Every structure is written in structure tokens, then in C-alpha cells.
Amino acid sequence: MNPLLENFKSALEHSFIDQSKETNELYKAKLLVNPDEMGRMVLNDLVDELATCTEFFFAVAFITESGLLAIKTVLSDLAKKNIRGRIITSNYLYFNSPKMFKELLKLKNVDVRITEMDGFHAKGYSFKHDDYETMILGSSNLTIKALKVNCEWNLKLNSLSNGDLIQAMKQNFEHMWEESEPLSNSWITKYQMGYKPILNVQKVDTMEEPSTQIDPKSIVDEVEYATKQITPNDMQKKALIEIQKMRDLEKTKAMVVSATGTGKTYLSAFDVKVYQPEKFLFIVHQEQILKKAKDQFIKILGEDEEKFGILSGNSKVTDEKYVFATIQTLSKDETLQKFAKDTFDYILIDEVHHAGAKTYQKVIDYFEPNFLLGMTATPERTDGYNIYEMFDYNVAYEIRLQEALKENMLCPFHYFGITDIQVDGKTIDDKSSFNQLVSDKRINYIIEKIDYYGHCGDKVRGLIFCGTKKEAHELEQKFNNRGFHTKALTGDHKIDERDRVIAQLEAGKLDYIITVDIFNEGIDIPSVNQVVMLRKTESSIIFTQQLGRGLRKAKNKDFVTIIDFIGNYDNNYLIPIALTEDNSLNKNNLRKKTMATKYLQGMSTIMFDEITKNRIFQSIESSKLNNAKNYREAYQNLKNRLGRMPKLVDFIEQQSVDPVIITKYKENYPAFLNWLNEETPALNSQETKVLTFLSNELLNGKRNHELLLLVMLIDKKKVSAENYQSYLKEQGYICDEQTIKSVERILSLDFFTQNEREKYGNTPIAIYSNGTFSLKESFQQSLQQNQWFTECVEDIIKTSFESSKRYVLSEPLTYNEVYGRKDVCRLLNWENNETGTMYGYRIKYNTCPIFVNYHKDDKISNDVKYEDELIDQHTLLWYTRPKLNFSSKEVLEIMNYKKTNLAIHVFVQKESVGDPEFIYLGRAFPKLETAKELIKQDKNGKDTNIVSMEMTLEKAVPLETYDFIKQK
Hints:
Blueprint: H1 3-16, E1 30-32, H2 42-52, E2 55-60, H3 65-69, H4 72-80, E3 85-90, H5 98-105, E4 110-115, E5 123-128, E6 133-138, H6 144-148, E7 154-159, H7 164-179, E8 181-182, H8 185-194, H9 234-248, E9 253-258, H10 264-275, E10 280-284, H11 287-301, E11 308-311, E12 322-326, H12 327-330, H13 333-336, E13 346-349, H14 358-366, E14 371-376, H15 387-390, E15 395-399, H16 401-406, E16 413-419, E17 422-423, E18 426-427, H17 434-437, H18 440-453, E19 462-465, H19 469-481, E20 486-489, H20 495-506, E21 512-515, E22 530-533, H21 540-548, E23 560-566, H22 574-580, H23 587-595, E24 605-608, H24 610-622, H25 628-642, H26 648-653, H27 659-666, H28 669-675, H29 685-697, H30 705-716, E25 718-720, H31 721-730, H32 737-747, H33 754-759, E26 766-769, E27 772-775, H34 777-785, H35 787-803, E28 818-820, H36 821-827, H37 835-838, E29 847-855, E30 869-872, E31 875-879, H38 889-895, H39 897-900, E32 903-911, E33 917-937, E34 943-953, H40 959-966
Parallel strand pairs: 2-3, 3-4, 9-14, 9-15, 10-12, 10-13, 11-12, 13-14, 16-23, 16-24, 19-21, 19-22, 20-21, 22-23, 29-32
Antiparallel strand pairs: 1-7, 2-5, 4-8, 5-6, 6-7, 17-18, 25-27, 26-27, 28-33, 30-31, 31-34, 32-33, 33-34
């Protein structure tokens, strides 16, 4: 049977007759929901299908700007490949806004028509591929809620081109296409004249909130809400409870860590209202923030404006109850001495991460309030100062960007990482000249892209961040020459000028403010609906601060567009760190999160175009993430946060550095602490070697079996194999005889090479005899006599169990996770570590792991440069080692895999750089009809025999992983 037909047959059987029937993941029918058990949303499948299709059409009744934005990058990539599509939508219920129709006209590779069919309610998506076609049919319109948030049911079906279902869908679409009117500017003008937006609480059947509705969780600082009672949002309610708990415990200091845009100033005002101080002091580092903060407090507290005063520059206070002061003015001797030390019973420091400065220390040391509250979005510092210590480590409440997005506290954003342009044949990079940065070619390109990706609402209110003052002023002139209304603001401008320009932007008199870093924090412009980044990312903190300028909610603002122009910058790896808040320093984690953007919570999206994604991969590969500076800084930040020497498990629980990376750097954690000059209790040589063994081999959590047994043995000293197996079975883990033997060989060190055994002390931790496991006496003795050693062992066990949560431990290997050759030997229950002789593949114990180095260096030492290739997401073209033919023993074993039940596992490494770790692509099955005997030339130019064959992967390679591997 034709292999494609065989795949479809097995997919039909699996999907509609018997789910236990093995099939290729790519072809089976799927129910798409938000989110599924893997965390994927409907949007993921929609983008994957678009990215791999050769043609597409949609028939959808309702489309929103956000829904369209979520696929604009992939549509732009398709346009570069001359791949076109068609969309039919409607004017049904006036759901679709005139502006959304204008956005559709920007899609140069998509033809759009409007049907006026009564009751048009279709929700169908069709994608043509080289060998088959895909349909997504169900409940999801092209809205961001339907694609990411709502409870939706969609059926994803695959078909050959002659299938009845796909033909019926095509015929119906073509009939509607012929009866529909092409979308045009004149049609939009006519539509707009009769447009009647729905103002109901919720729009029909999509749960899509109209832009005129106010989110009840949102606190928006606009004049029209001034007469309404403002109440705390969900975050603020929780934070207020936790702050009060601190006071109930008689704590005099507390700190709140809250993402930009979540309403920290309002939160503090609510708390002041609860506290009812006799005198209150608000301190901040920028005068620009004071008036806004004072107005917000007046609104919340409801007291006479005469009770509020500003202490800044020429503004002096007398006996006002509520004082709002800049640190620059307050810290002056002549100002500070005018106040008694106990003048204020409640002091609040905003943007408290600045409080390490001498001016802040002077003020804090002077005053003696009953309660001191600090607030910041970014408590981490690079100068070593411990903000947490200042507040006695009393963190009352903490909410970071990802959680704030999930809780719908911020305005959803659509981030687009797009490639910067080539000027004079060279892509913008760290060495680009000023003339290249402001060339007409680049300006025109920037304008083209900001128009394509657009903004929420009819009028853009944008911030553009660039690299230098000179560049800001030049961009102002060139944008204005092209019809925009822009103004450059830099540190040279006085506060009054900044306030005036901001007011112009909010009033719609300016399109953009072009700035250099002065808006990184402390500036509140809720109406900003587009943020443009025209500079390299120097720091993940600054990136997040600039992103945050657009995240405040505002009336008639459903989302903010973030457009990041990414050149060949060395620091591009900081972008996924900032967007994902991943501080693990683990390159594999960063690669994975760059590949798959489903990690983003709520209705926000992240999209990188193909070139940009590759640039980020290259930046991750070449970055020196694992350097001494990063380790020291991460350790100090965590120690500051905890107020004590961290344990390994703390790094996971506080989402800091991956502990496995730490122990790779210095073999074990006590050695790492000693390197940091921390004072730790002594360990003898054998104890150190045992900790090195546990850290190097078992800390990663890829199999829990060994440490589960160790826990049992520490508790009981001896454990029967039968009881151990029963316990594994209760936990849902593999408990066959081969696995038990493997565990025994690991803990006895028999699995390891002679050099490894010497490194690990040549003494087993546990031994097996007469059906019973028991702890080695030397290990027991160390546990009894050295409390520090015991704590380190317990820490490793806890850390490993935390690390194991990312793996499916009911199986030997977890699909799409990363493994080294030694991991594979251990997890496939091989008797010994045969890493040194495994190379490309090895057949042993009825298993055959295949390791593919995908992009091979021309200088490789192999006899033959292999041409292994992923033909598509479910097929690997694979080559044996040289000097083999169909009669060779190992070729026969592979081709007879069905008879012997040989388990073939495929591992792929993008290229041989850094750690030799491979992505596990799952089980593979040879397609015997594709096997060929070939003649290839070796490195000396001599002919040699080799066998090639295609292998079908049991699970289709995720598109993001497939793209990552294939990209050069």
C-alpha cells in the first residue's frame, strides 16, 4: 500500500474505531481546545498549519483586530514565499469593525470577500499541503479569545485531495466566494456609514468583550471615571490583606513586588486609606510622578485637596497631612532637618529598587515611621545592594508579568519580533553607523512595518525607543517630514516640557514620542497603544520596563502592539529571557521557549518572523550565559531575596538558575558555595565525591527511581526488591526487572566507566544482595555524623524531584525533551555507560538509539559526511555507518525490527556546539520499501558502501522544534 494511504488508514482507525491503534500523529483527527493537556491553544494549530501550507482559505463570520494580529507575522512570512490565501467574512450583526476590515486590506497575499448571506455563521479553516489537506471546523472565530482563552471545540481533520469531505467544503466555499463582494475601501466607507457596534455586555456567542466595555478589574485614570467610586482590583485586594497581615504580626516594614501597570499607586492609596495615618510621606525619584500620584491619592482617600502637598524643587510644604516628595529635594540637609524624625507615621517609597542610593539611605536612616512600605516591579539589582534586607525580608505580596497577564490585570499585548532591514548590504547590528540607523531606506521600512502591524483604536499613540539622543532628534525630523506628528524627548528636556509633550500624545495631537530610556519607568501614559523598539536589548529588566509602558489598561484600548526591530545583535538572547521571565541560564530552556510561544498567559501573543527567530537562536548559541558574573549575580539576588544562604531547591522554587547548570559549573553545590567564598561546614573527600555523583548523575530528575530508593533506604536502612517494586508501581513508574537492575548498577557505580567511578569515590551508595537493597556503611556513617552532608543530600533529592516534574516518568524518555548519550544509556537500562563508543547509533539490549547531528561541520572527522534529514515532521531520512549493506548484521537487525520488537529511538542535535545534548523525537519505524544500498565517497575520496532508509516517527515533530532543527 502507498505509505501515505497507510498513514491515513491507521489514522482513521485510531481516531474513529480504536484509539489503541498506533498511528502517525500528523494525520489523526484531533479535538482542539483552549488549552489542551500540553498547554497548546487553538491558535498554535492555526499558526502551525499556516506556516506549512501551500495555499489556504478561511470562512469565518467574526474577526477582531487582535485575532488578525495573532497571525500577521506568519502571513507576512508566507507572502515572502508567494503563498496566497482567501478569506470570506461577513457584516453579520455588525460585529466586525470598520478598522478590522481596513487591517484586512493590508494583507497583500490574502484576497478577502464579504458575504451578505443571512445568518452567515461559518467557522472553518482549510490548508493545502503538498500531499494532503487539513481542515479545522468548529466554534472558533478569528478572535483572540476564541483562539486562546474561550472554551472552544474545534475538530482538526486531514484528508487526501479527493476526499468527499474536503471536496464538499471546497465547493461550498467556492459557491460563497462567487456570491460574495470583494473587500475594498469603497465597501468599507459604505459599511462605516451604517455601522452600529454592539454595546451589549457580551457579544453574541463569542464572549468577546466590545471595546466600549470597561473591565471591572481595571482601574483607569481618566477624567470620565472621576465621579465613580474606585474599588480595588483582585490583585490589590489580595495585596491589601497580606500587607495588613504584616502589620498584625507587628512588622514595621513591608515590600510589594508588582509588575508594571498593575496599579501599585492605587494599591498604596487603598492601604493608606485603611491605615489612616496622622501624617503620610510618599517618596519617589522623579518629579514627573508626584502630581499624578497625588491626584490618585486624592481620588481614593476622598479628602480635601488642601491636605495634600508636593515637596519638589520650588514646591514647598507646610503642615499638609499627605506629603509627596522627590528624593532629591527631601534628602537635602536643609529640607530634612525641618521634619522631626517621627513626623510621619506611614512612609511609602515608590520604585524602591532605587533605594540603595545614598540619598535614600540618608532619608530612611533619618525618619522613624510606624510603618514603611516599599513598592517596585524590579527588585533585582546588579550593584549588590540588598533591597529585601532594607525591608527585613518582609515581602507582603509579589506578582510578576506572566501572572499579571494571566489574571487579566494588564492590557493584552501582541509582540512582534521582526527582522531589521539591510542598509548598504549589511543588516543592522552592534556596529551599525548613525547614518545607517537613520537612513531613508530604514525609515521607510519602519513606517511600512508599524503600519502593517497597526494599533488598537483609530488613532495611534505610540512610544518609540531608540539608542541615542542624536538618533531620537533625527528620527523626529524624518518622521515629521513623512506626515507624522512626533516629538523627541531625552534627558535634556525639563519636566515641564516632558509633561506638555505627554499631554499632547494623550490628547491625540502627537502620533509618537521618540525617546531614549527616560520612559523606562515611572511614566504613566495609559493611552499608549503601540510601542516600537529600535535599539538592541541591553538588559532584560530594561526591555520589560519599556514593554510595560504600553501595558496599562485604558478605556477603548483592547490591546497594545509591541514592534521590536531585531538586528544581528549579540544580546538578542535577552529577548526570550525578558518575555518568559526565564532566569535559568539554561540554553535549552531558552531555545524551547523561543520556539514555542504558548507559554504566554491570557490573550497576549508573541510572534517572531523566521529570520528573527534564527537570529535569536544564534545569539543563544553564541552567548556566554554560563559565566562567573551571571552565576554570582543570580546567587546574590536569590540570597538577598531569601535573607539566607540559598539551597539548591530554592533556585527552582524562586525560578532562578537551573541547579543542574550550577553543579555542572562546579561539580557540586558545596564546591559552588566555596567558590563564592561562602563559609560552609567541612566535608571529607569521600562525602564530596558522593555529592558530586548525586549532583552529576541524578539531580536532573530524568528518572526518579534511584532517589526514591535512596529515600526509602535512608528511612529504613534496608528495603526488599519486592517492596521497592510495589512502591514504584504505586507511583505509576516503570518497575520491570531490567529497570530495577539498572537502578542497582547506578547506585553501586557498576554502570560507570573506571574514570567515573574514581571521580565518584569508588564506593557504592547502596548495594543489592539476596533480594534486598541496603545502604553502604560509609554512607550511613556520614549521614549520622555530618549534618551538613545530610542537608546537602536531602537538598539534592528535593531538587531532583522538583526537576522531574517536566518529565513523563511513566515512560523511559520524554518526547521533545533533551538528553545526553549517557542519559540514554541509563534510561534504556543499559548495563554500562557506553557513551565513548556509541557515536551515531548502537544496537544493544533490544534498543537502538540513533543520534543525529543535523547541521554537520565540513571539518568533521567521520569517514563519510552523513546526509540525515528530516524530510517532513514525521519522516527522517537516515544513513547507516559506512562499509555496510543489506547483508550486514546491524542493518538486518534494524530492517527486522518488527520480528524482534527492536525499539528505535531518534535523538537530534541541531549542530555540534556546546553540550552534546539531543532533542528526543520519539520512537521511529523503518519504511522498508525506501531502504537503498548506496555508494558514497569517504573523506579520502574512496568509495564505500552505506545503507539509507526513511523512518516514520511515531509522533510528528512539533513545528517549532522542526523549524529550529532545520534552520541553518
